[in-house]
Structure formats: structure tokens, C-alpha cells
Amino acid sequence: MFERNIYDYYQLYCEERFMLGDFEGFEAKQEYYVFVPIQFTAGQTIQDMVLMSEHLKTNGEQSIAEVIPTIRNQSIALVDGVEGFLFKLPSGQNEWRGEGEGIGRTLAFFHHKGSRIQSVRHSTTNYYGHWKLIWEKRLTQLEQWYQRMLQQLPQTEVDEAFVMSFPYYMGLTENAIQYVADSDIDEPYRANEQPVICHNSFRENSWLSSPNTPDSLIKLPSNFIIDHPSRDVAEWIRSEFHGEEFSEENIVSFIYDYESVTPLSSYAWRMIYARLLFPLNYFETLENYYGTQLKEERMYYGETFFNLIDREQRNQKFLTEFYDLMENSQMVARVPRVDWLHYL
Prior knowledge:
Blueprint: H1 2-10, E1 16-20, E2 23-28, E3 31-37, H2 46-58, E4 66-68, E5 77-79, E6 82-88, H3 103-113, H4 131-152, H5 157-186, E7 196-199, E8 208-210, E9 213-218, E10 224-227, H6 230-242, H7 248-259, H8 266-277, H9 280-291, H10 295-310, H11 312-325
Antiparallel strand pairs: 1-2, 2-3, 3-6, 4-6, 5-6, 7-10, 8-9
């Protein structure tokens, strides 16, 4: 069905199929393509993707996949029962990770190329300066679910764990929100900060490798948004921390590589810590659990939720010791700590 749908929408024959990270890919006419379901995008329009891609290319970033419209000039196609975008991978000489080149250094150069973006043209993908409002809305929604659950009484073990854990995570979220608010007031050089093109959720596997160039670093516009560069730094750290091969040395090395290109300001460090305080995984897991009707998905997200709860003490320890870990960074000493974490 995949191959038939691709031909019907794009007039392309799938000569060879492959997996590229989480996505289905194929070769057609000596070009490589990848299909990205909408659930893996940041909600951008095709116009947003094109504008951000053009800005990056103008500033020297060539390793960007090109979004392909259907033969009827539509943005989205229904392939194998899933709506999504088709991207053509760049060919020829593209950016790749050299031997010993850290992802932090490459990310810093990417942010530099994505700077001076006219964010007013991207209202649907501009998150710069909006963290506090977005987090408040998500917290309000979850609190409504919590109150409803108290009235109806929990029906499942996940319901019970949600009711028991929510007050703590609400406190953590309120601290993250207040941390952002205080930073916007206290930082004297806040006005010097600028938005850049970054990623909705940046992690080690956000950039793809072309099938014929294993060391290439291809960026998908479906993950592009506009925000403060600290977002990418924090989300990479979060992903690393929750990964199976977590090591403090990897995080220290990542920060060192990034700062070898662009030193992080005290405001950037505040934003990094605020994002790490915000329990994103808790919100996403519950939103996914209560948002699906499929039994298999509910089982998966339920198990993920229990694992998350079990690891929270480890997360507390990491947040408490984070600035000690980053002590070699010049501006970290100026960033206030959250005292109550030390007493848990």
C-alpha cells in the first residue's frame, strides 16, 4: 500500500525501500526520499518549512531535506493510512560529522546559520518568549484532568499513579514557570538575546544519515521551529539523561563543544535549567495515554509512565547537581539554584 500511495500522490516508483531512523524511506530515480507522519512534525505549514529552509541555505546550511508537494500541489498525502509530508534528501556534497566532531559544535554552527530570522513571519512556529504561557496552558489542562479524576475516582493503576503524583509535578512545573518569569525580569542583558531556527525536540538522532553517506547530517524542516537556542541544548540534555546510555561525561562534552563556538550567556543557562525543571516527559506521557483509545498504545504509555515515576528520584538528584556538573562553564555561577530540591 505504501508504494501504491506514493505513486498515486507523487508519481514516484519506489525502487528500493529502507528505514531512516523512525521513518520510511525509498529510492526513486537515483534520489532518496523519506515520508514523515504529521505526528512527528511541529505543526508547521509547508510555507514555514520552505521559508526557514531558504534562510538556512542562504547562510550556508546545505544539508536540508526538501519538502515535496503532491502532484496536485497539496502539502500532505495519506500514505499507508497516515497523513504526512514527503521530503527529498539532499544529494552531492553535504555536511557530515568529521572524526571527533561533537554534535554540540555542529549544533552551535547550525544556530548561527539560523540567526537573524524574521520571526514575525512565522507566527505558527515561533515559540520565542512563550514558554511561560505554553506551560501554564498545559498545566491548566492537566489540573482539570486531575480534578475530574478526583471526582470520578481512579479506574486504573495509571489513574491512581496520576492522582498520587500530580501535586508534586504541579509544584515542579510552577517552579519552572516562575524560574522563566524571574529570569526575564532579573537578567540585565535579556534584550541582547535573539531567536534562532532550532528544533521542536532536539536529540542525538534528530539529524539523519543518507543511505549512501552514513556520516551525513541531514536536517528535516518538519522539526524546525523558532525559539531561543537554549531549547535545543536543554532538550538534548533531557534526551541524553533519559537515554539508556546516559553519562555525565557526554553532557559535559556536549556543552564544551557547543561553547567552543558560542559561549552560553547567563540568561541561556537560566533557560536551560528552566526547561530541565519543566517535567516535559510527564506531560507528554499522560497526554498520549489519555489521548489514545488503542489498547496497545495505552499499555505502552502506561508502562512508560510508571518507569518515569520510578526514575524521578534520579531526576531530582540530577537537577540538584546540575550546576556542579557544569561548573567549568563561565556564566553558570551567576545562575540561581532551586533550594527546595536539596531537601527532597
